[in-house]
């Protein structure tokens, strides 16, 4: 019997929210729907918009905070009294969250290069994040990212192991520092000119963040990884 306790013919149901303020809602949804077909247990996914505290329901299993402008998103959360409910939802056992780009900034406990006057964050990742680490919009770029986690490097499309993935960086942040040993580095960007490796994806328990946008590529590994994080969290909840 599969670990979920379902027999082979039953489908399990998972609900995933996407914070719908700005950013690639549709692209994330399409990628999730494609990734679920790679799961071992048949899974029915319900993808819902999250724009109001009432949308943060206990039976939602995962949440994606997409890219955009972190200051705009945090202002939206403040205006709609969503900050506390969102923190509480994330901290509830069995709930998994993934922030891409601006989402990474929002999840981080510490932010450098904040907008004047500071910007509130959700403080869910023990990291120091630099907001526009790679420069302004014109400095957006695409590059190969080196995957550090073995569970991510299995390339489901190629049915082979591949430790690189294509990274789309749009005015992207980067992790300058991890401030707890609980934070696992999932991927780095190796820069030959600077001779360094910048942290661009991390995970701390049920919280994941990527500085780049996997939803804008054909690579489904990150979405599949997010779905498997949800299954793990449910087993442990
Ligand atoms: N650097 C941007 C910010 O401050 C994030 C850019 C993005 O999400 N594409 O929010």
Give a verbal description of the structure.
- The protein is an alpha/beta fold and 237 residues long.
- Helices cover 22% and strands 33% of the residues.
- It is built from five helices and 14 strands.
- It has a nine-stranded mixed beta sheet with strand order 2-1-3-4-14-13-12-7-10. Strands 5-6-11 form a three-stranded mixed beta sheet. Strands 8-9 form a two-stranded antiparallel sheet.
- Strand 13 and strand 14 form a beta hairpin.
- The structure holds glutamine.
- The site of glutamine has 12 residues, from helix 4.
Highest CATH level, the class = Alpha Beta
Tell me the number of structural domains.
1
Helical residues, percent? 10-25%
Provide the CATH topology.
Answer: Rossmann fold
Beta-strand residue percentage: 25-35%
Strand tally, please? 14
Topology:
Blueprint: E1 12-19, H1 25-36, E2 43-50, E3 62-65, H2 70-79, H3 83-91, E4 96-100, H4 102-107, E5 108-112, E6 125-130, E7 141-147, E8 154-155, E9 160-161, E10 164-169, E11 174-178, E12 184-191, E13 196-204, E14 207-210, H5 221-236
Parallel strand pairs: 1-2, 1-3, 3-4, 4-14, 5-6
Antiparallel strand pairs: 6-11, 7-10, 7-12, 8-9, 12-13, 13-14
Brief characterization of the structure:
By secondary structure, this protein is an alpha/beta fold. The chain has helices spanning 25-36, 70-79, 83-91, 102-107, 221-236; strands at residues 12-19, 43-50, 62-65, 96-100, 108-112, 125-130, 141-147, 154-155, 160-161, 164-169, 174-178, 184-191, 196-204, 207-210. The protein contains five helices and 14 strands.
């Amino acid at each position: 019997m599969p670990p979920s306790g379902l027999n082979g013919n039953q489908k399990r149901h998972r609900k995933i929210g996407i914070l719908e303020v700005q950013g690639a809602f549709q692209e994330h949804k399409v990628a999730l729907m494609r990734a679920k077909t790679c799961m071992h247990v048949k899974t029915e996914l319900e993808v819902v918009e999250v724009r109001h505290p009432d949308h943060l329901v206990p039976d939602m299993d995962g949440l994606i905070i997409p890219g955009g402008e972190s200051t705009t998103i945090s202002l939206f959360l403040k205006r709609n009294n969503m900050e506390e409910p969102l923190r509480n939802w994330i901290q509830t056992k069995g709930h998994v969250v993934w922030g891409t780009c601006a989402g990474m900034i929002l999840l981080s406990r510490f932010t450098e290069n904040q907008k004047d006057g500071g910007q509130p964050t959700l403080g869910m990742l023990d990291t120091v994040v630099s907001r526009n680490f790679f420069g302004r919009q014109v400095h957006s770029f695409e590059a190969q990212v080196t995957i550090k986690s073995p569970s991510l490097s299995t390339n489901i499309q190629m049915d082979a192991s591949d430790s690189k993935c294509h990274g789309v960086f749009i005015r992207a942040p980067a992790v300058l520092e991890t401030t707890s040993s609980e934070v696992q580095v999932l991927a780095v960007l190796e820069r030959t000119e600077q001779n360094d490796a910048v942290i661009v994806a991390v995970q701390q328990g049920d919280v994941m963040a990527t500085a780049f946008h996997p939803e804008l590529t054909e690579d489904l590994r990150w979405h599949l990884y997010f779905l498997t994080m949800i299954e793990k969290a449910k087993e442990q909840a």
